[in-house]
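request received
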Amino acid sequence: MKEEAVQFGEAGSLVGIVSVPPVTVDKPAVILLNPGIVHRAGPGRIYVKIARALAVRGFTVLRFDFSGIGDSLVRLDNRRFEESSVDETRAAMSFLCATRGCGRFMLMGGCSGAAVSLKTAAVDRRAIGVIAINFPARADEEESGSHRNDSHYYWTFALRSLKSWRKLLTGQADYRRIGRALTQSVKRKLVDRNQASVLDQQFRAKLWELAARHVHLTFICSKGDVLLEDLRHAGGKDFKQLCAQGKAACEIISGSDHTFSSLSDQERLVEAVLRRADAAALVPKLQVQIPGLAPSPAGALSSNDRKRFVTG
Amino acid sequence: MKPPMPAAPFYFGSQGRELFGCFHEPSQKDGMRRFAILICQPVGHEYINSHRALRQLAVRLAEAGFSVLRFDYSGCGDSYGEAEQSSLHQWMEDISTAVVQLRALTGIFQVCAIGLRLGGTLAALTGCQCKDFDSLVLWEPVVSGRDYLQELYSLQEEMLRFRPKPKLPKKSPACTEILGFPFSRLLHAQLEELDLAMIADKPAARVLILRNTPAIDETEGDLKDHLIQTQARVEHRTMRAPQIWLPTPDGSLLVPAQVLQSVVSWVCGLS
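response:
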């Protein structure tokens, strides 16, 4: 496995690393997209681990920084990140196409990188797969975001922590914050559970659209992350249905957090990514390139894959 | 507005053990500076958290007319190798390799090293051994390795309050895990022994110690006094600024403009 530093995009403003497989095989190339504003090494250097493990399996992998992140230059055109990130991901595909002859791509990323992966796949048919790690299905709900995080923390961790109980009973806790978080939580449980917002409906429509194009959809989620609940709510019955039909898959990594901040989390994430990437690589090339020709869902996803979502 | 020059990313060093570097060419080429600058980054989670700020520092120094090389140590960032195999000696060797590369790229022999946290400590140790540096900036250096490990363990304990209990790794632990990064037994032992206030020779002719916190404890005083005893010209500056190497509650990465400006002005004053 060899790695090369590359520059591409306008005036070479985007910086990335290509992990080159030791032997050339006909597998889709993988592009890793920044998780938030963390540079291309990823939190805990997890992107480096993923890229190298994939390259050893024969995948060409590019992990690069969006403009203004890591080593890439800031854009001067004032375009919104939602637009520029999609353009830059497409530029990355074109770069690999021109320099390595890659024609099929799997887009992968954590958090906002997952969102960009899905958005780009929706507009570029060269994307044959998406691996969305801790996908922020309801990231646009800024207003309730902090309460949701607080609520997740109180229910999941503070409730079982002696230190937190001590703070609560000795008047050191932020009672107002706790109150707001709990109210929000109850409201969500009672009122919001089955109500799909416009954004949720758009998300579901996008999933169906990608599935119809036979894009291999995988969602990898940390069990301890608040975003898992969001994904379940945002995806609703449609997501379950897609998983049951083998058109999407959801892997849940138990005992892990949003950034996979322990070595064990990272090890299991890499295993899951390899499993999903191998499954996506099995999709026959002709079937993904000719619109309207349906590949067998069973060819793309095993029955175990389907079970994973149900049991998760 | 003239677009800035992109930094040139590249690999250097011996085959199979290549280090990743980013070279920032000076914006103004006339009136060449008499030394080039090497930025020595911290390691582990501190490397991830401070990457943005150190890149900004490199950009500002390049704008001030310096050639700047940032690089990743073996087993860190984009460089080759596994973190499990890291050691202080390997990282010091990497600094020497980067110095050779910087001289080859610029044709300038004199080098100023700027190191943050353990990066500063490693630069100081390398400077003592190899006499590679004309000047040195120690930005919140790790003075006692034992204290550093203690800080990391405390931070880890705090972090574990906010996440599910991690599962034990499948492989037998040949290394200690701290904040999601493996520390080999060798590295751990070397850090326990590390004491920057015990170095025998001067790490550079001129040294700037930069602290983010106003309070100067005994260890810091010791470091300054000790470096003065080694015949180095030492300046100590204290600035109120965020500890950019620590994780923030909202995951943002901080760039302390005032500190960066202070470093740039000190370095410009030397050249």
